[in-house]
UniProtKB/TrEMBL annotation:
The keyword Phosphoprotein does not apply. The keyword Metal-binding does not apply. This is Glycoside hydrolase family 1 protein. The lineage of its organism: Bacteria, Bacillati, Actinomycetota, Actinomycetes, Kitasatosporales. Keywords: Glycosidase, Hydrolase.
Length: 504
């Protein structure tokens, strides 16, 4: 029997009014979301923009990584991707047709500040100005993410995220973006999934820049936290308080479950929770790194030297929202018996197979596939993990507003002879997870919105173009967009601000 690890099971206020579930006058068979709930979809710059060498953009670590033979399946790159850079007006029109209320996009750092230092390139900034204006003109709220993994290659050459200087450069970049878009954008996210940037980029090497040093991975984790703090300070300084800016970070928190109630398995879950979740939640929300995390990894880094005076005060600057990305729970046991070791584990966010662990200090923990349905990524489908995760955050940080900034699934979508893309599996996935969000809100979690991942099919990192997460199908040779049946279902969900009580 699977037992939930106690840490996983346990479950500065914003000026926004807290949405609450409103009971309907009669039982209409629907789960109604709070009035004002923000419905959107999300993308990332390198995954959709293309135009990799246009208008002054220089290579990011993902350009370098994807052009390195053997790194990405089929040798795919993001050079063209979904060509959103040239097609953004049509894409925004499609968003409006689908009824989206918000769009979460990321800014390509090397498009606006090619070396990661110095002045911005106005042609790069102009793209995001045009995109934001197009969104506002369509009645869609822009939600800007400053960093979704595309570090300028020159900063990587100077040391990358394991180098403290990168955090300082990130703060300067945040100030540039605040000055450029602060009159248009209210919602800002500093980092997307720093767990992936640190541990997949510098630990297992299955993401750019492809380095495999556990000490560097931990250094990167701290400097990403510090970069978040520097960015929050820069945004607060540049954005007018009268605009009530909403600042956040997006974390891919792991709903960690132990395989059994044994002390050894519960201890394994604690270790993964520490290195996967509390390494970010601790300093950002509580102003300190957990003592057990520091002890688990003391053989890899000297925390007293890594964390300098003033760092934790900067990292813990108040945020207005916590963004949460969720796809599947994480099931672990002690490093005995059968299972995939952390070094071999390619599930959840790992996106590839490596001989190096993305879990520094917990390399011998075993990972397990729960029974039941899986996505095309071989990730388990378990919406209860999202509910439990939201309940945990609500219990540990009462009153903290949250948003689901990514949730979705890849399936083997195709265009049928009628020219349609029917994806009932995705509809089922989305329904189950939205029902879980609704239950969490009813239980007291302050969840303000939901962003489907992804708006459209795109470059899926180390998987290239082989996995499709989009609600909109992209025919890459022609760049034709075809809304899938899940997109139409999502449109109706947004219109009703509700999902059915029963599965579709």
């Amino acid at each position: 029997m699977t037992a939930v690890h106690p840490l996983a099971a346990t479950a500065e206020t914003t000026a926004l009014p807290r949405p609450r579930v409103q009971p309907s006058g009669a039982d209409d068979g629907l789960l109604h979301f709070p009035t004002g709930f923000l419905w959107g979809a999300a993308t990332a710059a390198y995954q959709i923009e293309g135009a990799a060498a246009e208008d002054g953009r220089t290579p990011s670590i993902w350009d370098t990584y994807s052009h390195t033979p053997g790194r990405v399946r089929n040798g795919d790159t993001g050079d063209i991707a979904a060509d959103h850079y040239h097609r953004y007006r049509d894409d925004v029109a499609l968003m409006a047709e689908l009824g989206l209320k918000a769009y979460r996009f990321s800014v390509s750092w090397p498009r606006v500040q090619p070396t990661g230092r110095g002045p911005a390139v106005e042609r790069g900034l102009d793209f995001y100005r045009r995109l934001t204006d197009e969104l506002l003109g369509a009645g869609i709220t822009p939600v800007a993410t400053l960093y979704h993994w595309d570090l300028p290659q020159e900063l990587e050459d100077a040391g990358g995220w394991p180098a403290r200087d990168t955090a300082e450069r990130f703060g300067e970049y945040a100030a540039i973006m605040a000055d450029a878009l602060g009159d248009r954008v209210r919602y800002w996210t500093t980092l997307n999934e720093p767990w992936c940037s640190a541990y997949l980029g510098y630990g297992s090497g299955v993401h750019a820049p492809g380095r495999t040093d556990p000490a560097h991975a931990l250094q990167a984790a701290h400097h990403l936290n510090l970069g978040h703090g520097r960015a929050v300070a820069a945004l607060r300084a540049a954005l007018p308080a009268s605009a009530d800016p909403q600042l956040s970070i997006t974390l891919n928190l792991h709903q960690v479950r132990a395989l059994s109630d044994s002390a050894a398995d519960v201890e394994a879950a604690r270790r993964i929770d520490a290195i996967g979740n509390r390494v970010f939640l601790g300093p950002i929300l509580d102003g300190e790194y957990p003592a057990d995390l520091r002890q688990d990894t003391a053989h890899l880094v000297d925390w007293d030297s890594l964390v300098q005076p003033g760092d934790l005060a900067a990292v813990s600057a108040p945020i207005d929202l916590l963004g949460i990305n969720y796809y599947a729970p994480t099931l672990v046991s002690a490093g005995t018996g059968t299972g995939a070791s952390a070094a071999e584990n390619a599930r959840n966010d790992a996106h590839g197979i490596s001989d190096h662990s993305p879990w520094p200090g917990a390399e011998d923990v075993l990972f397990h596939q729960p029974p039941g349905q899986r996505t095309a990524m071989n990730w388990s489908i378990d919406a209860s993990g999202l509910h439990d995760l939201l309940a945990r955050i609500a219990a540990e940080h009462p009153g903290l507003p949250m948003m689901i900034t990514e949730n979705g699934a890849a399936f083997d979508d195709y265009v049928n002879p009628e020219g349609e893309v029917r994806d009932p599996e995705r509809i089922g996935y989305l329904h189950g997870h939205l029902a879980a969000v609704h239950a969490a809100i009813a239980g007291g979690a302050d969840v303000r919105g939901y962003f489907l991942w992804s708006l459209m099919d795109n470059f899926e990192w180390a998987y290239g173009y082989g996995k499709r997460f989009g609600a909109v199908y992209v025919d890459y040779p022609t760049q034709r967009r075809i809304p899938k049946s899940s997109a139409r279902w999502y449109t109706e969900t947004i219109r009703r601000n509700a999902v059915s009580r029963s599965a579709p």
